[in-house]
Q: What sequence folds into this?
């Protein structure tokens, strides 16, 4: 009887493999265990072995085809044996839709509402995967929706056992609790665990692997950054001014901004709020939103806000066009979108051009304050630090705990003077501390 | 010569007339209260003293307003007789901000500490231990004040009764213990709760004077309280007065009065203290009618005042919990 | 500064205030020639006479009522209940009269009285003479509840309580009477409703009352040797309760242990923990907030059983250490 050769599943999460090479030809004699093809998985190339002694027949895919795991890619026939009915030697079929030939999905059962059961059935999720929020842990429609939304957003699934302090720090640091190993009782995540995770995320501990120096050619993006920054530092006399901002009101505004999108609660990011506020302030201080050209300072009437994003090769600055005209939600969505495309190398040149001002936020790395270098041909840049709880005096000189963020503006002294930068910073501070002023 | 002018040897004519007015006022106030209750204008329950008006008139008139009054839950008459203002009393009854207790106390806790009226008490015998403190306070301050302490037959069976009378007697405190024995502790008849004939005999246990008097006779009450107060002011300690009376209405508004007969109630209604006092002081029907008209007007004005008064503001809900 | 015992500090407070304020008198059982069951009034009757140091019959309702009646007529009485346990016999006067009078009368009366309750275990007095009942009174709006833990606090808080225009339940722990500490000679008051940070530390906050403050400080000394820095806070008055230092401390340390001698179930710790949970400190908590309190049992007679019924130093050390180490 014809023996099927299937595309094996090598990895836990592997769903498909590409045929890299057929090591044996159609009609060639093989022995059980012989490699007959190489295929690629996510990272590695693996060999597909002959499951039986016999003749390799009925090869169904050519090199370059991507084949779902467990699909039949060929047969091993005994002398005189024929291919099963309907199998055509000569014309390898294209990749077929997975659903058409995959076996029936198992029936999902469990403690869930009928709608939830159907949704899980459709999505192929087992009832064990979802924690029910209904009576006696019954899984509801909302539970499934939230699960799917998290799955789609690439977020870890499940509930983390964590202390309130750990949850707070995780949210402030924008780190997923489920990605953290807890050191408390029964693996509960403590504040220290989150802090450790945050600092190791920003500063990976590297052990020395080689005594040799490594030489990285200065090319591509690195070279452009090198040239731009060098020129900026050389040409533009940098002046830096710094101010502390009480982010209490911003925090409240952010909480109030929460909206449910696809079952996931979304709030705008602080960067989005900053973009909005800075754009508002720039319109009032156009010298900060200008370009130095030969013998002229060109004041720009529109704000195209560059927001620096770290990527593996360096730094890119996607631009939010007309940021002064957009809502915080719009800005928040655009930022999320461009940052994601930046990390996936999917930005188009248009995303990066025409910035009139730049915001660089290193708060998520736990940086309290820093100074940034102006991104030419712009005239100024804003460096944003972490939001940290600090004791500050209230009106009656008693210490109160407030969320404080330090912002630092660097400006080209050829274009603006200290007082103008100070006024600009004062407006940014005002906009963040009392967002209402933007509507006055 | 002086003595002949006093009616019954106790009251000047205008004083007697005023006491009669107060008795009629008390009854009218309570009848009006019943009416308002029926109309749903009153929030809580109330304890009516209709039939017992003689005790309030006789007792308060035997004391000065420098003395102290410790009242009971059935205390409308005593409050008015002590000099309480009808308007503010009515306002309290309707739970208004202008009431004596700003609408927080109601009928059962009405008080005016400023005029030494230390309040009606909702706990049976609750004011008896307090009376000891008032007596001590008077003694330490060395004033000649007296604390008139009211309670009912039911309160006489509380432990606090014993602690209070014992402490007052050993220290010779200036307290007049005035028990209004109206024969029922809520529904419990006197003879079911007492082996003795008269509560006043308990005074002997404390080595103090005890008397039982006709509580529907203003003169008898006045005389007994006056004499007790005299003893107290002299430093001879407390007296236990038992004033026999009867409440015509139920214990409170929720009382069906299944524990007594209509005949018994009727019998006591014939001993109505108001016409009795009117006859004794020589007030004729025409004069009586004039008093009734005056009372009617006064009640009407008080109801208007109360109904036009503001409700307590919700923002003041926590006021008065702490000083 | 000169040192006095807790008992002497209370005596001095009474002596000084009676000299200054004729409205103050003391009333209770065996407080005259006998000097009080725990000697607090000592020879005050010789100094101030029988009219101001008043020996009463065994009449706890009478004592409480006498305080109420005197207070609303302008005096400032200080009542003593021989053992806190007997306060149950005064409850009607305290809960239905003293606490509610001002409110019922529309805020137009004042009841400035103090009732002193010697409470607590550790003397072998067994079940009916060793209770700690302070939280009953916390649950009654209109009463204030004070629990001094040192001689200094005892004097300052007693004077403040006498000065206060509200009924104050003043809980003295019997084991504290003999403890010594610095006490200024002059009259001074400690405001009611002001928590005291007795010791500063960064690793864990212990909120303790009365005798447990003393034990917590001893525990903190031991834990310091292990490198655990304990912050100890004594609320001093548990109603009104000054939460601010407690909340701030909880934010700082992220770990809180509440210690009191009274039985755990329904005790003051439950209230305190709830308030911490309701406060902004919640997001800073890094371990469950826990209570160490008396076992839910009457106080036994047997010395060993009695000792183990209420939190002792070693229990506090162990519990605090476990919280810091993240065992819970």
A:
């Amino acid at each position: 009887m014809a023996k099927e050769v299937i595309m094996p599943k090598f990895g836990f999460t592997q769903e498909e493999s590409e045929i890299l090479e057929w090591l044996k030809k159609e009609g060639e004699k093989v022995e059980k265990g012989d490699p007959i093809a190489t295929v690629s998985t996510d990272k590695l190339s693996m060999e597909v072995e002959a499951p039986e002694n016999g003749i390799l027949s009925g090869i169904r895919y050519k090199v370059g085809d991507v084949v779902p795991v467990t699909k039949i890619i060929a047969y091993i026939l005994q002398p005189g044996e024929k291919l099963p009915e309907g199998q055509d030697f000569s014309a390898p079929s294209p990749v077929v839709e997975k659903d058409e030939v995959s076996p029936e999905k198992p029936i999902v059962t469990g403690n869930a509402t009928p709608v939830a059961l159907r949704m899980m059935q459709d999505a192929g999720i087992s009832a064990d995967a979802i924690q029910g929020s209904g009576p006696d842990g019954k899984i509801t429609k909302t539970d499934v929706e939230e699960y799917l939304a998290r799955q789609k957003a690439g977020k870890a699934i499940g509930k983390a056992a964590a202390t309130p302090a750990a949850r707070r720090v995780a949210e402030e640091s924008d780190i997923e609790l489920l990605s953290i190993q807890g050191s408390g009782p029964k693996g509960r995540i403590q504040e220290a665990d989150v802090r450790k995770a945050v600092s190791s995320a920003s500063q990976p501990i590297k052990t020395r692997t080689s005594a040799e120096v490594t030489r990285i050619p200065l090319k591509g993006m690195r070279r452009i950054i090198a040239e731009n920054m060098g020129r900026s530092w050389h040409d533009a006399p940098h002046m830096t001014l710094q101010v502390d901002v009480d982010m209490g009101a911003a925090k409240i505004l952010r909480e109030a901004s929460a909206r449910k999108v696809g079952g996931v609660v979304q709030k705008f990011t602080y960067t989005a709020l900053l973009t909005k506020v800075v754009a508002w302030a720039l319109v009032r201080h156009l010298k900060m939103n200008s370009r130095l050209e030969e013998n002229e300072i060109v004041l720009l009437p529109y704000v195209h806000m560059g927001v620096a994003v770290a990527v593996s090769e360096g730094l890119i600055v996607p631009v939010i066009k007309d940021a002064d005209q957009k809502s915080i939600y719009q800005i928040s969505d655009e930022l999320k979108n461009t940052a994601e495309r930046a990390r996936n190398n999917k930005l188009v040149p248009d995303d990066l051009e025409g910035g009139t001002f730049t915001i660089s936020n290193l708060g998520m790395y736990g940086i309290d304050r820093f100074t940034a270098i102006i991104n030419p041909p712009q005239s100024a840049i804003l460096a944003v630090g972490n939001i940290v709880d600090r004791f500050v005096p209230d009106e009656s000189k008693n210490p109160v705990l407030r969320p404080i963020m330090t912002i630092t503006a660097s400006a080209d002294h050829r274009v603006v003077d200290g007082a103008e930068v100070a006024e600009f910073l004062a407006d940014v501070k005002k906009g963040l501390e009392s967002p209402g002023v933007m509507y006055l | 010569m002086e003595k002949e002018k006093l009616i019954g040897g106790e009251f000047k004519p205008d004083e007697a007339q005023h006491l009669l007015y107060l008795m009629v006022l008390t009854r009218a106030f309570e009848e009006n209260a019943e009416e308002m209750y029926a109309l749903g204008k009153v929030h809580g329950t109330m304890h009516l003293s209709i039939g017992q008006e003689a005790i309030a008139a006789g007792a308060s008139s035997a004391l000065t307003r420098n003395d102290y009054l410790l009242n009971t839950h059935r205390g409308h008459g005593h409050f008015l007789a002590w000099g309480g203002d009808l308007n503010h009393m009515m306002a309290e009854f309707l739970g208004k901000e202008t009431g004596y207790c700003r609408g927080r106390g109601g009928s059962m806790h009405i008080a005016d500490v400023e005029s030494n009226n230390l309040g009606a008490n909702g706990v049976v015998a609750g004011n008896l231990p307090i009376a000891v403190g008032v007596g001590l306070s008077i003694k330490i301050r060395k004033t000649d004040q007296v604390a008139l302490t009211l309670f009912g037959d039911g309160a006489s069976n509380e432990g606090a009764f014993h602690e209070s009378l014992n402490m007052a007697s050993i220290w010779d405190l200036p307290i007049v213990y005035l028990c209004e024995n109206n024969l029922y502790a809520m529904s419990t008849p006197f003879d079911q709760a007492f082996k003795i004939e008269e509560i006043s005999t308990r005074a002997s246990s404390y080595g103090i004077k005890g008397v039982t008097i006709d509580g529907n006779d203003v003169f008898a009450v006045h005389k007994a309280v006056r004499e007790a107060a005299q003893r107290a002011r002299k430093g001879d300690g407390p007296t236990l007065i038992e004033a026999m009376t009867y409440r015509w209405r139920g214990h409170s508004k929720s009382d069906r009065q299944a524990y007594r007969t209509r005949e018994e109630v009727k019998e006591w209604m014939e001993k109505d203290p108001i016409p009795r006092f009117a006859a004794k002081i020589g007030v004729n029907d025409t004069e009586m009618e004039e008093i009734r008209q005056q009372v009617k007007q006064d009640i009407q004005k008080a109801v208007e005042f109360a109904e036009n008064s503001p409700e307590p503001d919700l923002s003041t809900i926590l006021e008065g919990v702490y000083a | 500064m000169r040192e006095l015992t807790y008992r002497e500090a209370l005596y001095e407070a009474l002596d000084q205030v009676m000299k200054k304020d004729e409205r103050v008198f003391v009333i209770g059982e065996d407080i005259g020639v006998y000097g009080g069951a725990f000697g607090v009034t000592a020879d005050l009757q010789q100094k101030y006479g029988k009219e101001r140091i008043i020996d009463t019959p065994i009449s706890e309702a009478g004592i409480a009522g006498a305080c109420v009646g005197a207070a609303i007529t302008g005096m400032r009485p200080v009542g003593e209940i021989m053992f806190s346990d007997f306060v149950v016999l005064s409850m009607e006067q305290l809960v239905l009269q003293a606490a509610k009078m001002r409110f019922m009368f529309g805020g137009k009366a004042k009841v400035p009285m103090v009732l002193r309750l010697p409470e607590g275990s550790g003397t072998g007095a067994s079940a009916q003479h060793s209770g700690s009942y302070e939280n009953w009174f916390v649950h009654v709006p209109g009463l204030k509840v004070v629990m001094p833990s040192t001689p200094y606090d005892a004097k300052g808080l007693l004077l403040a309580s006498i000065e206060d225009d509200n009924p104050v339940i003043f809980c003295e722990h019997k084991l504290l009477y003999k403890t010594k500490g610095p006490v200024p000679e002059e009259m001074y008051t400690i405001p009611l409703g002001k928590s005291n940070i007795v010791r500063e530390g960064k690793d864990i906050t212990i909120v303790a009352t009365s005798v447990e403050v003393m034990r917590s400080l001893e525990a903190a000394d031991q834990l310091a040797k292990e490198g655990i820095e304990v912050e100890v806070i004594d609320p001093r008055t548990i109603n009104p309760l000054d939460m601010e230092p407690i909340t701030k401390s909880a934010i700082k340390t992220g770990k809180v242990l509440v210690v009191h001698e009274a039985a755990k179930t329904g005790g003051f710790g439950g209230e305190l923990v709830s308030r911490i949970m309701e406060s902004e400190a919640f997001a800073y908590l890094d371990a469950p907030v826990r209570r160490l309190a008396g076992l839910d049992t009457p106080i036994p007679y047997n010395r060993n059983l009695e000792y183990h019924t209420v939190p002792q130093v070693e229990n506090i050390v162990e519990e605090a250490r476990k919280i810091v180490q993240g065992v819970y």
Chain A has three domains: 3-101, 114-201, 238-439. Confidence is low (pLDDT under 50) at residues 89-103 of chain A. DSSP finds eleven helices and 20 strands in chain A. Chains A and B do not touch (no CB pair under 8 Å).
